[in-house]
């Protein structure tokens, strides 16, 4: 299976993608993890990405696409993958489609986790306190949510038109949300 998780930051994409990854035996590929790895390794792409991440802005498509393209070539991603945090723009949708088409693949499903924004802010503030994540200040969180609404929400319509969008309420407990996703993918 080739799956994309969508929803605002803090919606639970990472948690649910990790659960689905274990269930299907395919890698959970998080652009946030890819960015942080490049930043911690001090790669040129990581240094460039850090500047945007610190301001709560999206990393430019060229940088993001290069990181994702490289990750999808790894052997563990050949039988399938779960993307978390990519694509985030209409241009990235086209780039992902082209990446997959070049290897004779396509997406099977796009899971949109829907949540209340105030709950998301509370989740991310709590996560910042627990994990010491410097990119999760309240101002940066609110800016990320604004950017999500402006740039990423339009992708929902694109994937709905493709007939692969599945909407799941992300505010339930972890197991309930996981069961709803698994049922939607494997009716």
Strand order of the largest sheet: 2-3-1-4-5
User: Termini, distance in Å?
Assistant: 14 Å
Let me know the CATH homologous superfamily. Answer: P-loop containing nucleotide triphosphate hydrolases
Estimate the global geometry from the Cα principal axes. Answer: globular
Task: Describe the protein in words.
This protein is α/β, with parallel strands linked by helices and 187 residues long. The protein has one domain (2-180): P-loop containing nucleotide triphosphate hydrolases (Rossmann fold, 3-Layer(aba) Sandwich), CATH 3.40.50. It is 59% helix and 12% strand. The protein has 8 helices and 5 strands. A 5-stranded parallel β-sheet has the order 2-3-1-4-5. Helix 2 crosses helix 3 and helix 6 (117-131) packs across helix 7. The longest helix is centred in the C-terminal third of the chain and has 24 residues, at 138-161. It is globular. The relative contact order is 0.20. The model has no long low-confidence stretch (mean pLDDT 89).
Keywords:
single chain, about 190 residues, alpha/beta, Rossmann fold, 5-stranded parallel sheet, 8 helices, about 60% helix, about 10% strand
List the helices and strands and how they pair.
Elements: E1 2-6, H1 13-24, E2 28-30, H2 31-41, H3 44-54, H4 61-72, E3 81-84, H5 90-102, E4 109-114, H6 117-131, H7 138-161, E5 165-169, H8 174-185
Parallel strand pairs: 1-3, 1-4, 2-3, 4-5
Short description:
The protein has 187 residues and is α/β, with parallel strands linked by helices. The protein has a single domain, classed as 3-Layer(aba) Sandwich (Rossmann fold).
């Amino acid at each position: 299976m080739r799956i994309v998780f969508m929803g605002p930051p803090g919606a639970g994409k990472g948690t649910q993608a990790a659960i689905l990854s274990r269930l299907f035996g395919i890698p959970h590929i998080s652009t946030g993890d890819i960015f942080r790895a490049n930043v911690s390794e001090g790669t040129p792409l990581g240094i460039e990405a850090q500047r945007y991440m610190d301001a709560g802005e999206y990393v430019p498509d060229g940088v993001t696409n290069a990181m994702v393209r490289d990750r999808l070539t790894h052997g563990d991603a050949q039988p399938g993958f779960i993307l978390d945090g990519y694509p985030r723009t209409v241009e990235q949708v086209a780039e992902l489609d082209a990446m997959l088409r070049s290897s004779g693949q396509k997406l099977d499903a796009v899971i949109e986790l829907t949540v209340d924004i105030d709950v998301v802010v509370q989740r991310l503030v709590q996560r910042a306190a627990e994990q010491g994540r410097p990119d999760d200040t309240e101002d940066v969180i609110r800016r990320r949510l604004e950017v999500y609404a402006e740039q990423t929400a339009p992708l929902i319509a694109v994937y709905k038109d493709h007939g692969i969008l599945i909407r799941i309420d992300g505010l339930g407990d972890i197991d309930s949300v996981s069961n709803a996703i698994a049922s939607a993918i494997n009716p």
